[in-house]
Every structure is written in structure tokens, then in C-alpha cells.
Amino acid sequence: MGEVNALVAQQGDSGDIELAHQRVDESFLPDGAVEIDVAYSSVNYKDALAVTPKGGVARDYPLIPGIDIAGTVRASTSADFSVGDAVVAHGRDIGTARHGGYAEVARVPADLVVRLDGLTTAEAAAIGTAGYTAAMSVERLISYGITPDDGPVLVTGASGGVGSVSVDLLAGAGYEVVASTGTDSAHELLRALGAAQVIGRVPPEGEKVRALGKAQWAAAVDCVGGTTLAYIASTLRYEGVVAASGLAGGADLPTTVHPFILRGVTLAGIDSVQQTIDRRRALWARLGDDLKPRHLDAVTTEVDVAALPGTLRTILSGAVTGRTRVRVA
Ligand code: NDP
């Protein structure tokens, strides 16, 4: 293999993180049973944090970021994978403490690799960690017995990666989706994805979060956290469930016990990072089958890996709509 093209994040003496396209020797790549010719990666909120000083995500530099890897197996010492298999890999330390997807070749442990079925590598990267997290969230609501007959499901951060795929998946499964967004330009897209109603961010400006507010939602998918999640807890209907995955709006949770002990509300935490490979493979199989997003193309923008430094710097400001797939090869 010799040398490989890669985007490398390096921390300077001042603490700033510099991103540069480099040719790195193959010995720069970590060990791993499965070597992948990377076709696509993607941009997630976490990828931006990985190249942000004190972002709290990357454990060491230099680092090839990219928490999603989609491509074709080029070599494997694992009996589970053969050369030519179309695969996706994400989770654990990929793109944070182990080199990730923004390079022509990636090496990963076999227990982080999922063989694709019903999805192309381009589709898998468009879904990526954010879309996968949306699927985990929807699957969790269903596992708690939430059905379309129970009433509206609120999706916050709806214009973003987790949010937009959640809207698509929930509407596809027959739920009445209320999409909450602070991005005016995303209203049309959210309706096209199947949202029955598009509202502004919650809590509405000027409205305080009360211990218990008007009960409105049967369930919610939240990737915003902070006051938004506190508002959701206080406005879920009796025995409502919120699948909480993110902190785009803050890591604090200024709530009380009242929604939980007086309305039987469930706060269901979603973590895509440490999930077992068996469950990961099972959910990816559903993403290629009954849970396949219906409007993946509509939510996906493709950029070349050469454009990445700029894109990574805009996502934290909330200026990116939907999913961003990165063309690596
Ligand atoms: P995006 O940036 O694509 O989406 C986040 C959305 O949140 C934005 O588009 C915006 O939506 C909204 N938002 C941004 N800033 C604020 C703010 N200050 N207040 C309220 N809303 C805000 O990110 P992703 O979808 O990739 O990730 C979302 C979150 O989920 C992140 O915190 C990420 O770390 C987390 N995550 C967690 C995972 C897990 O395993 N638990 C896996 C994947 C992601 P709008 O303008 O429509 O309101």
C-alpha cells in the first residue's frame, strides 16, 4: 500500500487544532483485522468536536478524524469478512482515539465492522452515526410500546443529522411527527420528510420550563439536551418516553422529578458508541430493510474530502442541514 492520502488533525503549541491533507505511511494506521478501502465518510457533530480545542472528544493527536467509515474490504484476517465485502464501521474509538474515515484506507477491529445488506456504501455513509442514532431512538420508542395511535411525537434539532433522519423514519413508520427547528430554511424539507407540523425551538422563546407543563407529546426524540430536554420531560403525556442522545443545546438538565413520578415519564438514554456489535449489525440490517429511510437523498449533501476543514467548522454553529456525506475515494 505504501502511502495513503489522509486528512490529519494536529494540535499546535497554542492548543489550536490544525487540519492538513497529507500523505501518510501505512504504518501510521493502527492495527486492525479488517482493512477497508474507504469510499465515503460523513460529518457528524462529534467530528467537529474532535477538531475543536477542548472539544472533549479526541483523546490524542495526530488524529485522522471521521467517526464513520463506509467502503470495501481490501484485506481481512477475520474469517467474518472477505475481500470485496461492502461494509460500514463506526463506534467505540473510531475517529476519536483511533484513526477514522477521512483517509483512503482504514484499519479497524472486526467487531466494529458491519457487512451491508440492502444499502450501498454511499447510503450507509449518508445514514452514518447520526442516522444510526436516529434509528436507535426510534427503535427504543417502539420498544417502550409507543405506537402511532398514541399521539404526536416531537423531534427536536430536526434540521440536523439525528433530527432529520428521525423525522423521516418516524413519518415512514406512520407516526404523527412534530418537527422542532430553529432553522427557518428547513421547514420545507421537514414537511417533505413527512412532518405533520413544523414548530420553532422549544421551549418557545420567553416561556419558562415548569415542573409540569401542558401534556402534549406521546414521545420525543431529542438530540439537543439542556433546557430543551427539560421542557420535553415536562410536556410529555402520561407514560410518555423521550429518547435522548445529544447535547447540541447543552449538557445540563434543569428538570425536576415531577414528570417522572407524577406522569410516569421515561427518559431513555441512547448511546451508539459502546453498543454491542450484535445489536449494531441487527439494526443496520433493519436500516437496509423495514427501517430504510425514505428520503435519504433529500437530507444528504455530498462534499469532497478536500472541502472538509470548512464543513467541520460550520456544523457546530448549527448551520448545516441534514446529513453531510464525505466522498473520500
Ligand atoms: P447536527 O449539528 O447535525 O444537528 C444538531 C441540531 O441541533 C442542529 O441542526 C440544530 O437544529 C439544533 N441545535 C444546534 N444548536 C442548538 C442550540 N444551541 N439550541 C438548540 N438547538 C440547537 O448534529 P448531529 O445530528 O450530528 O448530532 C446532534 C447531537 O447528537 C450532538 O450533540 C451529538 O453529539 C449527539 N449524538 C449522540 C450520539 C449518541 O450515540 N448518543 C450519536 C450521534 C450524535 P435546528 O436548527 O433544527 O433546531
UniProtKB/TrEMBL annotation:
Record-linked SUPFAM superfamilies: GroES-like (SSF50129), NAD(P)-binding Rossmann-fold domains (SSF51735)
Gene3D superfamilies: Medium-chain alcohol dehydrogenases, catalytic domain, NAD(P)-binding Rossmann-like Domain
Alphabetized InterPro entries for the sequence: Acrylyl-CoA_reductase_AcuI (IPR014188), ADH-like_C (IPR013149), ADH-like_N (IPR013154), ER (IPR020843), GroES-like_sf (IPR011032), NAD(P)-bd_dom_sf (IPR036291), Zn-ADH-like_protein (IPR051397)
Pfam families membership: ADH_N, ADH_zinc_N
Residue intervals of the Enoyl reductase (ER) domain: 12-326
NCBIfam families, alphabetized: oxido_YhdH
Official protein name in the record: Oxidoreductase
Organism whose genome encodes this protein: Gordonia caeni
